[in-house]
Amino acid sequence: MADDEPAIVDAVSRYLRHIGHEVRTATTALQALTAARTFMPELILLDVMLPDRAGARGDPARPRSSS
Predict the structure, then answer these.
(1) What's residue 51's pLDDT?
(2) What is the pLDDT of residue 64?
(3) What letter does residue 44 receive in the DSSP assignment?
(4) What are the E-state strand segments in the chain?
(5) DSSP 8-state class, residue 67
(6) What residues contact 43, with CB distance under 8 A and at least 6 apart?
(7) Cα 48 versus chain centre, distance
């Protein structure tokens, strides 16, 4: 899961682990992309407004705009 809010990362990842899932966490889109390439998850929970990228596509070539 990827989110830049530590409380959300903690709560969601703890719950997912509690119900038996293996979880990797990230706080930036770059970390999430790197983890996804190595871990090959079945599901990704992604905050679409991460500090280093924005958008539902998670496009690594599209930086978050400052507007």
Answers:
(1) 82
(2) 53
(3) -
(4) 49-50, 53-54
(5) -
(6) none
(7) 9
What is the per-residue pLDDT for 57?
A: 56
Taking CA atoms, 20 is separated from 40, 43, 52, 67, in Å, by: 17, 14, 30, 40
Reduce the DSSP state of residue 32 to 3 states and report it. helix
Q: Are 23 and 16 in contact (CB under 8 A)?
A: yes
AA identity, residue 66: S
Place of tokens 């999430």: 32
3-state secondary structure of 63: coil
What single-letter amino acid sits at 15?
Y
Whole-number pLDDT of residue 59: 55
Report which DSSP code applies to 62: S
Amino acid identity, position 31: Q
Q: In which residue ranges of the chain is pLDDT below 50?
A: none
